[in-house]
Amino acid sequence: MQEQASTQPVPHKRKPRLAAIEYIRGISMMGVIAIHVGSQYIMNTSANVHLIALFEVASRFSVPIFFFISAFGLFYNLDTTVPFDYRSFLKRRFKTVLVPYLVWSLFYLLHDGILYKVGFPDPLHLLTILFFGNAKYQLYFLVILIWFYLAMPIWIYMVRRAGKISLLLLLAVQIAFDYWSSFSVSFNVFVYGLPDHSVLKPFLMYRLNYWVFHYVFIFVLGGYLAVHIKEFQAFMQKHRTGITLFFWASLAWLLAFYYKLLYVDGYTALEAINTAHQLSPAGIFYTIAASLFFFTIFTYQRYPAWLNPILHQLGRHSYFAYLVHPFFITYAALALQHAGRIMTAPVSLAFYCVILGLSMTAAVLCRRLGEKLPLLNEWTIGIYPKKK
Predict the structure, then answer these.
(1) Which of 204, 226, 277, 363 could form a disulfide bond with 320, CB atoms 3.0-4.6 angstroms apart?
(2) For residue 158, which of 42, 263, 74 has the smallest C-alpha distance?
(3) CA angle in degrees (0–180, nearest 5) for 236-256-303
(4) For the chain, how far is it from start to end, CA to CA, in angstroms?
């Protein structure tokens, strides 16, 4: 242990625990479930566009803010002045991300293969699915996170040298890149025009599933603020009102974009949510604002204290709930279909509560099981090990 001390990423005195990171993780998990419940609700041709906005637009910060808090957590306890032990870092991080990713990917492939009678993919197809994170619709996040981990020396280099000007330049580049990737007509015509047998086509079609470039700014911002935690805390204290106004203004901008697409440009609700997303300029600023806003209110408590235990449990079980919730969505949707029920607005809200409740219950039960089975307690299925 003493020999490793000089090269470990966390050799210095452990910093105080930040509840905000855990609380944001829980809020983000709830937002991701909202997006996926919204995908069920939007299939109702008479769906309320305002409720769709709540499910699918207001929650759009959920995925990118995960990258923000992931970077914040990494850099918060990282001493950037000592040599970075890349091998040790990857070993630990792959244990917490790669193993659960593979386990859950195989679980969903087996489950869906049986449920939908499509069988298990052949080896080549399996490798393609795993590379792009296509075993289930929520798993691509882990693929991007793995790529972020693989490039960790780059992010350390960038964070060490980052300043206000360089961050603003990076933000400008991020907006330009995301706009090109999402809205460039010529680029998308090129991608969709490629023949189906083209080797290049899937790499471009599924670029959102593994291109870390889409989220570099929010990741680097998280790392930069963690390294400069004292200055960040002072900033939050001084500008709490401004941060709050920034959050609501950015949400209003994203919602205005969504409603413009609906009522001015004649988009369908599905087309509108696929345009007013987190990679649009409005979505990028909304993500930044949400990151600052939630960190501020969870650091300098501006909400009822009785929410703390709830936020703690949501954050503590967020990883497993994130991984398991599509399983419950599948069977809840089948149950509604079997009962002949339409996904109306009240039903969709109840559906959301049921999915969140089942996912959290499953997480709690699996955590208790993991205390007896070490295999489960080693992150295999997304259960945080019990801290000693």
Answers:
(1) 363
(2) 74
(3) 35
(4) 18
